[in-house]
Design brief:
Structural class: alpha/beta
Low-confidence stretches: none
Number of strands: 6
Oligomer: single chain
Strand order of the largest sheet: 3-4-2-1-5-6
Shape: globular
Radius of gyration: 18 Å
Mean pLDDT: 94
CATH superfamily: Decaprenyl diphosphate synthase-like
CATH class: Alpha Beta
């Protein structure tokens, strides 16, 4: 039975969902485990949520894997995170390709280990023609950095100030061909945007849950979609049924 059948309260399914995957360290601490164990569990959980997203009809899932600010964490944790990501790519890419998942990278690759950089590029190249769902991985990503990179690129292309519009800046963003997210979910009870898709999320609906990311499953995703279904998206306008 599909999620839609199990949860008839889901009456609208967003085309693009973003997830700020928070709480891995606290999940591990609550179990007496090292923080990296939580990050490993969180990485493994992506597959479960991705399958649920496919089941319910979501077309794009953007996950916040590593921010530009995360480089400021202890060096041993950063190194462990890089290792976990590399292992995850090696373990999952072929299976995701077989399941029709298109893997995209959203962010900068400068400063990333060359071996990991090549793994990312290979995964993107292998799955680029898949159309079942797009897994857009925000790795070494920052929303402000993305806007800075977009402005620098359009300036290098010679656009005069009067030619700069919202549409032009959007065209120069990392994943300009993807639709803006209709829903962003943040786990672990936090309410911050944390520099995630700050341009694209101008009219995005937000949903926060106290559940730590490694415990966020298909039922938790369904709860987020139920709440999303109950919201009215106005985009700054007055509802049509208002007198």
């Amino acid at each position: 039975m599909s999620l839609i059948e199990r949860y008839p309260e889901i009456t609208r399914v967003p085309q693009h969902v973003g997830i700020i995957m928070d709480g891995n360290g606290r999940w591990a601490k609550a179990r007496g485990l090292p923080r990296l164990a939580g990050h490993k569990a969180g990485t493994e959980n992506i597959r479960r949520v991705l399958r649920a997203a496919v089941d319910i009809g979501i077309r794009v899932l953007t996950v916040y894997a590593f921010s530009t600010e995360n480089w400021g964490r202890p060096p041993e944790e950063v190194a462990g995170l890089m290792n976990i990501l590399g292992q995850g790519i090696k373990r999952e890419t072929r299976a995701l390709n077989a399941e029709g998942v298109c893997i995209r990278h959203c962010g900068r690759l400068e400063g990333v280990n060359p071996k990991l950089t090549q793994q990312i590029k290979d995964a993107v190249a292998l799955t680029r023609h898949n159309e079942r769902i797009t897994l857009n991985v925000a790795f070494n990503y920052g929303g402000r950095a993305e806007i800075v990179d977009a402005v620098q690129r359009l300036m290098r292309d010679g656009y005069p100030p009067e030619a700069v519009t919202e549409d032009l800046i959007s065209h120069y963003l990392y994943a300009s061909d993807l639709p803006d997210p209709e829903l962003i979910i943040r786990t672990a009870g936090e309410y911050r945007l944390s520099n995630f898709l700050i341009w694209q999320a101008a009219y995005t609906e937000y949903y926060a849950t106290p559940v730590f990311w490694p415990d966020f499953d298909e039922n938790e995703l369904a709860q987020a979609l139920i709440e999303y279904s109950q919201r009215e998206r106005r985009f700054g306008k007055v509802p049509q049924n208002t007198a």
